[in-house]
Amino acid sequence: MKKKQPLAADPMQVAPGARKAPDSRASAQTPLDEVVLFQLEKTNKQAKLYSQREFDRQGLGITVEQWVLLKIIQEHNSLSQQELAQLALRDPASITRTLDLLVKRQLVQRLPDSQDRRQFQIVLTRSGLAFVEEHMAMVESHRRQSIAGLTKAEVQRFLEVLKRIQQNMAT
Question: What is this structure's pTM?
Answer without folding.
Answer: 0.76
